[in-house]
Design goal:
It is built from 15 helices and 14 strands. It is α/β, with parallel strands linked by helices and about 400 residues long. The chain binds pyridoxal-5'-phosphate.
Length: about 400
């Protein structure tokens, strides 16, 4: 075996030399104190404030979610005990799928073990369902969609990000000769910009294509019932498949699709990544349902998040730290250099107890390395002031570019 290790090591050394070797933070989240956590360093515990969590609304520690999970564990135990087909379906899964279908106004919902698996499995299965299928995929799409499409072996064209002219060019060329799936996202997580859902639906209707929308960074956060950006824009009913995660704004883990009863039944019956994997623990399904039900009626978390995001942006504006403009809850601060980005992140952590993970290639293109800041409703005014002050000092120290007011 040892002779293989030298090859692994050589590749790892390249990552380190490029400043993009990933180091895990050894965190202990503290229920009730989100976004505060303890960090394990050489046997010691240090306090950190997390500024890069995708538990966007802090629902992972919401009392209703925790109570639902405790209750389900006490009732059903820990694991599901099997795949969905072989004893793993628990009543909590059935209720959650109905809840998700209702959330998105669709006939059915289907659970997966992660958002990654839901994209990978559904796209690879759907693109295989029709002979000669072509997939048109936005250039900004997540790795899980890209891998799923690749696995289907269907013909694929990548259209320029959010470019309706380019998308229509592909649709015109194919022009009714082949079945087409258009795969895209509502909130692109590294830039924080929005997909053009209504425009894509217009084109899909004009050319008879099926629409597949990833709402992973939209669910819980947008729309009056937290169903996502398509709900906020009033176009949810026009999208054929809405995919989402339970691991971000809903605070637990798991993924899902919603769509017509026939489509979900088809995926349920033919998708390897669904059939051959054990079901989510019942307590996870119970916690997810509690989060969804809460966010269907409560506007508090969404409103507070918007206010916190605006406050962080105002703080950054005041000291000229440039961030990529967008209308979402994500604030990407471009550094443009992998080593510098990691150095800033390490310094913030070691000297200020502020944790923002550096985002490097291949998550983003080389030269666009960034700090991706995600405020939470629970960040206090003093957390925000500490963040802005620390970044100000670092920008001076590293002589980084500032925006001109
Ligand atoms: N889709 C997008 C756009 C994502 O950003 C992610 C993960 O960050 C996923 C899907 C995968 O979701 P999950 O984390 O639930 O596997």
């Amino acid at each position: 075996m040892k002779r293989f290790d030298s090859q692994f090591q050589a590749k790892l050394d390249t990552l380190k030399a490029e400043g993009r070797y990933r180091v895990f933070m050894d965190l202990e989240r503290q229920a009730g104190h989100f976004p505060k956590a303890k960090r394990h360093v050489n046997g010691e515990l240090k306090d950190v404030t997390i500024w890069c969590s995708n538990d966007y609304l802090g629902m992972g520690q919401h009392p209703k979610v925790l109570a639902a999970m405790h209750e389900a564990i006490d009732k059903c135990g820990a694991g599901a005990g099997g795949t969905r087909n072989i004893s793993g379906t628990n009543h909590y899964h059935v209720e959650l799928e109905a809840e998700l279908a209702d959330l998105h106004g669709k006939e059915a919902g289907l659970l997966f073990n992660s958002g990654y698996m839901s994209n990978w499995t559904t796209l690879s299965t759907l693109a295989n369902a029709f002979p000669n299928c072509v997939v048109l995929s936005d250039a900004g799409n997540h790795a899980s969609m890209i891998e799923g499409i690749r696995h289907s072996r269907a013909e694929k064209y990548v259209f320029k990000h959010n470019d309706m002219h380019d998308l229509e060019g592909h649709l015109k060329r194919i022009s009714g000769q082949q079945p087409v799936i258009i795969a895209f996202e509502s909130v692109y997580s590294m830039e924080g910009d929005f997909g053009k859902i209504a425009d894509i639906c217009d084109l899909a209707e004009k050319y008879g294509a099926l629409t597949y929308l990833d709402e992973v960074h939209g669910v819980g956060l947008y729309g009056p019932r937290g169903a996502g950006l398509a709900e906020r824009e009033g176009v949810m009913h026009r999208v054929d498949v809405i995919e989402g995660t339970l691991a971000k704004a809903f605070g637990v883990v798991g993924g899902y699709i919603t769509g017509s009863a026939a489509l979900c039944d088809y995926v349920r019956s033919f998708a390897s990544g669904f059939i051959f994997s054990s079901a989510l623990p019942p307590a996870v399904a119970a916690g997810a349902r509690a989060a969804i039900q809460h966010l269907k009626v409560s506007q508090f978390e969404r409103a507070r998040l918007r206010e916190r995001v605006a406050r962080v942006k105002a703080g950054l504006d005041a000291i000229g730290i440039p961030y990529m403009p967008n209308e979402s809850h994500i604030i990407p601060v471009k550094v443009g250099d992998a080593t510098k980005c990691k150095w800033i992140s390490d310094y913030l952590l070691d000297h200020h107890g502020i944790y923002i993970q550096p985002i490097n290639y291949p998550t983003v293109a080389r030269g666009t390395e960034r700090l991706r800041i995600t405020p939470n409703p629970q960040h206090s005014d003093s957390d925000i002031a500490a963040l802005v002050q620390s970044l100000d000092g670092l920008w001076k120290q590293c002589a980084l570019h500032r925006a001109v007011a």
